[in-house]
Design a protein that fits this description.
- With 115 residues, the chain is mainly β.
- The chain has no helices and 10 strands.
- The radius of gyration is 13 Å and the shape is globular.
- The two termini are 21 Å apart.
Length: 115
């Protein structure tokens, strides 16, 4: 199956999961798993959230930003991310993604897979 994100519905989600500004996405959903191409404009973020019953893989296509990641029973860590990085949030972990750039969008593919 080929997913053509440029031909799929474009969704704008203000303050997604409590984040700043808006999260823009072209999404594919098969009733169980989600695959999407996302965009965070400068200063935008996906709010802090915990993955329960699923995990998420994010591949940064362009731009840079900051990932907040937190494993159960640990302190949160802030990690700089950039084009080419692959981020993994296992089931039971918490994370957030922020575009900390001044002028460039943060563009990424993400897969949220149920376990």
């Amino acid at each position: 199956m080929i997913i053509k994100f440029d031909e799929s519905n474009h969704t704008v989600l203000p303050a997604f999961k409590g984040g700043e500004k808006e999260f823009q996405a072209n999404m594919f959903f098969d009733g169980t798993n989600r695959i999407f191409k996302g965009v965070l404009v400068p200063g935008a973020s996906i709010g802090v959230h915990k993955h329960e019953g699923n995990c998420e893989v994010i591949f940064i296509l362009s731009g840079n930003g900051t990932l907040l990641e937190q494993a159960p029973d640990s302190e949160p860590a802030y990690v700089k991310v950039k084009e080419g990085d692959c981020l993994y949030c296992p089931e039971g972990h918490t994370h957030s993604l922020m575009n900390t750039a001044q002028e460039e969008d943060l563009v990424f593919y993400a897969v949220v897979a149920n376990q």
